[in-house]
Design a protein that fits this description.
five-stranded mixed beta sheet, 3 domains, DENN domain containing 2D, dDENN_dom, 550 residues, six-stranded mixed beta sheet, uDENN_dom, Rossmann fold, alpha/beta, DENN_domain_containing_2, globular
Length: 550
C-alpha cells in the first residue's frame, strides 16, 4: 500500500481500505457492571478475554456508521443510523441549552472538576419514573475508578425499594452507559478515520467532556500513541472516563499505560485492575499501586491528588504560551457574559489544555452551556448553535467552520495567538480599573515563572480577586426566612458598588446562568462552603476591616 499522509487535507477523497482504521481501549471507571471496553475496529466479533463489551468501527468510505455494542459473546444488537449517531453525539456533548436549577460545587470549578457542576441537576419526570439516581460522583454515585463501589452504592440507594425499581435503576444505568460508549470512539479520534499506517508518531494527550441529560459531566482522558513494533502501524488511543477532573493524576496513569503498552498489551490489564482495587485519593493524599513488569519486577507507583482542588484539573501554562494576557482577558470577558467562543489549534493536546484553562478562569462559577474541548468532525455544525458554547476545533477545519452561519462569536486562533473574529466590545466588558489590576498581576512568558504550579497560583489569584471585588458582597444581600430559605436581593446587590463601570458590568453578569446557579446554591445553604473562594473572600473582608480601623 502506498504511504499516505496521516491527516489528508479536508475534503480530500478517502479511499476505503480496511488498513486505515483506529483502535481505542476504554476504561469506563464510573460504571458498575463493566470493567473495561475494547474498541476493536478491524474484527468486531473478536472479544478480548478481559473485555466486557466490544464496539466495531468501520473503515473510512463505508457508508455504514459505527456498529452498536456487541455482547461478550460477540452477538450484534443492531446498528444505529448515522443521523441517530449525530443526535447522540450532540446530546452527550451538551449541544443545547441546559436547564437551570443545578447545584454548584465549590470543589468543582470551571465546570469540569469533581463531577462537573453544570446546569439541570434535577431529573426530569421521565427519568425519575425510570428509577435513575443522581449523577455519578454524587453522594450516592460512583467511585472515580472503582466499578464495585459504584454497584454497591447504587444497590444501597434502592435497597428499600421494590424489586422493579431496582431493575429499572440498573437498566437505566446500562442504557446510559451504552449511549456513552457509542460516542466515545469518535471523541477519541475527533480528527476522523483518516489515518494511514505510520512508522513514527509522537504520543499526545487530550481530553473530552460528555454531558448527561441531567447536566452532569464525565471527562475522557486520552493518550494517543503508536504501539511498539516493526514496520508501519496504526495509532491507538487509551481512554479513561471519570466523573472527576484530576488531569495531572490521570495523565500520570496514562504515562504508566503507555510505558506498559510498549512492552505488551497484556501488561496493561493487571495495572488497571490494581488501580480499580485502590481507593481514590482524597485531596492532598497519595495511594500506592503495585504493578509487575516483566524484566523489571514489581513497581510501586505513587498517585497523589493535589491538596488545592480548584487547581488540580488545569494547567494555565499552555494558554499563556499561546495568547497574551490582554487577549486572555478578552476571552474571559466573553465567557463571563456566556457568549459563543471557538478555539482553533493544530494539536489536540494544546486545544484541550487551553479550553480547559479558559473554563477554569471562571472559578468559582461554572460554565453551564455547551462545552466540547475537542469537537469531532461530525459536530462541526455546533458553531451554528444560537445558544452559548465554548468549543475547540482543529485548525484543519477552519475553512468549514468559517463557511458556517456564525453570529456574535469569538474565534480564537491559538496557533497565531490572535482573534479571527470578534463581537467588537470585548475590551469594554470588564471594568477598566479592574482590568488594569488583573493585567499587572498576570504573568507573561517573559517573567521567568519557574513552575507550572507557581503560574497556576498567580493566574488563579488574579481572576479570583476579580470576582471577590465584584461579587464578594453577595452574602450581605441574601435575606433569610424563618424556614432557612434565602432570598437574593438583586437590586440592592448591584447598587452596593460605588464604581459606575462595576455596576454596569454587574447588571449584565447577574443575568447569566452561571451566576443564577451560584446564587441558587447560596440561597440553599446559609453556611458557606469553606472552599478556596470563600477563604479569599474572608481575607478580603478582613483587610477592609483593618483599613477602616487604621
Amino acid at each position: 500500500m502506498p504511504r499516505r499522509d496521516k491527516r489528508p487535507v479536508s475534503g480530500q477523497q478517502k479511499t476505503p481500505t480496511s488498513a486505515r482504521v483506529n483502535v481505542a481501549l476504554v476504561w469506563t471507571a464510573p460504571f458498575a457492571y463493566r470493567k473495561d471496553v475494547a474498541v476493536q475496529p478491524t474484527n468486531p466479533g473478536r472479544v478480548h478475554p478481559t473485555s466486557a463489551q466490544v464496539l466495531s468501527m468501520r473503515p473510512p468510505g463505508d457508508a455504514a456508521p459505527l456498529a452498536a455494542p456487541l455482547s461478550s459473546a460477540g452477538e450484534r444488537r443492531g446498528a444505529a443510523s448515522l443521523s441517530a449517531r449525530h443526535r447522540l453525539l450532540a446530546r452527550l456533548s451538551g449541544v443545547r441549552r441546559l436547564r437551570s436549577g443545578g447545584a454548584k460545587s465549590e470543589s468543582a470549578p470551571g465546570g469540569i472538576g469533581g463531577g462537573g457542576g453544570g446546569a439541570g441537576q434535577k431529573l426530569s419526570a421521565r427519568r425519575r419514573s425510570r428509577g435513575r439516581t443522581g449523577r455519578p460522583g454524587s453522594a450516592r454515585g460512583c467511585a472515580p475508578w472503582r466499578g464495585k463501589a459504584s454497584c454497591a452504592s447504587s444497590e444501597t440507594a434502592c435497597a428499600g425499594g421494590r424489586p422493579g425499581e431496582r431493575e429499572n435503576l440498573m437498566r437505566g444505568q446500562r442504557e446510559e452507559e451504552e449511549r456513552l460508549l457509542q460516542a466515545i470512539p469518535l471523541f477519541c479520534f475527533p480528527d476522523g478515520n483518516e489515518w494511514a499506517p505510520l512508522t513514527e508518531f509522537n504520543s499526545e494527550t487530550f481530553s473530552f467532556v460528555l454531558t448527561n441529560v441531567d447536566g452532569s459531566r464525565k471527562i475522557g482522558y486520552c493518550r494517543r500513541l503508536l504501539p511498539s513494533g516493526r514496520g508501519a502501524r496504526l495509532p491507538e488511543v487509551y481512554c479513561i472516563v471519570s466523573c472527576l477532573g484530576c488531569f495531572g493524576l490521570f495523565s500520570k496513569i496514562l504515562d504508566e499505560v503507555e510505558k506498559r503498552r510498549q512492552i505488551s498489551t497484556a501488561v496493561i490489564y493487571p495495572f488497571m485492575q490494581g488501580l480499580r482495587e485502590s481507593p481514590f485519593p482524597a485531596p492532598g493524599k497519595t495511594v500506592t499501586i503495585k504493578s509487575f513488569i516483566p524484566d523489571s519486577g514489581t513497581e510501586h507507583i505513587e498517585l497523589t491528588r493535589p491538596l488545592d482542588s480548584h487547581l488540580e484539573h488545569v494547567e494555565f501554562q499552555a494558554l499563556f504560551q499561546c495568547l497574551s494576557p490582554e487577549k486572555i482577558l478578552q476571552i474571559f470577558a466573553s465567557a463571563v457574559l456566556e457568549r459563543r467562543i471557538v478555539f482553533l489549534a493544530e494539536e489536540l493536546s494544546s486545544l484541550s489544555k487551553c479550553i480547559h484553562a479558559a473554563a477554569a478562569l471562571l472559578y468559582p462559577f461554572t460554565w453551564a452551556h455547551t462545552y466540547i474541548p475537542v469537537v469531532p468532525e461530525q459536530l462541526l455544525s455546533t458553531v451554528c448553535c444560537p445558544t452559548p458554547f465554548m468549543v475547540g476545533i482543529q485548525k484543519r477545519y477552519l475553512d468549514e467552520v468559517q463557511e458556517q452561519p456564525m453570529e456574535e462569536v469569538l474565534l480564537v486562533d491559538l496557533c497565531k495567538g490572535n482573534f479571527l473574529k470578534l463581537v467588537g466590545d470585548e475590551e469594554e466588558i470588564l471594568p477598566a480599573k479592574l482590568q488594569s489590576e488583573m493585567l499587572s498581576s498576570l504573568p507573561t512568558m517573559n517573567n521567568n515563572v519557574q513552575t507550572s504550579e507557581e503560574l497556576n497560583t498567580r493566574v488563579s489569584d488574579a481572576f479570583v480577586q476579580f470576582f471577590v471585588k465584584t461579587i464578594g458582597h453577595y452574602p450581605a444581600h441574601i435575606k433569610w426566612g424563618k424556614n432557612g430559605q434565602g432570598s437574593f436581593q438583586e437590586r440592592s446587590f448591584c447598587k452596593a458598588l460605588t464604581s459606575k463601570t462595576s455596576r454596569k458590568f454587574l447588571k449584565k453578569f447577574v443575568k447569566t446562568q452561571m451566576f443564577s446557579l451560584f446564587i441558587q446554591e447560596a440561597e440553599r445553604n446559609k453556611k458557606s462552603v469553606e472552599g478556596y473562594f470563600q477563604k479569599r473572600l474572608n481575607e478580603y473582608e478582613e483587610q477592609k476591616k483593618q483599613r477602616r480601623l487604621s
